[in-house]
Amino acid sequence: MQPIAAILTDFGSDDWFVASMKGKILQRCPSAQIVDITHNIQPGNIHATSYVLASTYQNFPQGTVFLIVVDPGVGSTREPMAAKVGNHYFVLPNNGLLSHVLQKEPETPTSFRNIETIIEGDSHTFHGRDIFAPAVGQLLQDPDSFSSIGKLIESLARLQLAGIRNDRNVIHGVIEYIDHYGNAISNLPKSAIESLSIQGETTVKWGDMTIPLVKTFSEVAKGKPLAYIGSNNTLEIAINLDNAQKLLNIQVGDTISIQLVTE
Question: What is the pTM for the complete model shown?
């Protein structure tokens, strides 16, 4: 199988930045297969990037090398880093981008190394091309080189991710991410919702609204709100064929208290 690199950035698609990084990867590993996750992350949004990465990486084969460049601190004292989590590799700034991955796999063996000595270029503002991409190419060409790619990092930057609280028939959590459709994705897992011993029809309380908990969008009329377990196995809130973020004024980080009741 060809070695695989997967790229996640906030670079957009209008400029040459992504192509420059791909070129650097191919210089070191001409046989690489390069996959774009997305380059439409909101500029500088580390939390969203961390969430998208954690939602994606387990779908890739073992040995995949992920290049993640959302780096508002580029050129500062923040460390350029290569990381190994289980059998996946990550090349990225040490600024919290691995937070959701590490939350998902708290028992998985990990290792983190400083790659500041790998540099091809003199830009202080494009480490994606001059440091990260060459490191990706090296790991694709020789995965065993990870152990010598740089010095061990002792202090890892991590985001403070909100937890959940279950009080009998009320679950408290937060909105983690708003997707392209305006659907609000929470951190409330399917297992926590199922743990509530509920009989009969169940509904979700969002503020003063009562929202039906259903399996599919087609179970409610067009323009009506719904709650459902999404593809990440967490509770999501949407409006059928409309934008829940705009119509319900939902924002990432909003604290939510959802009550499941029997009617």
Answer: 0.94
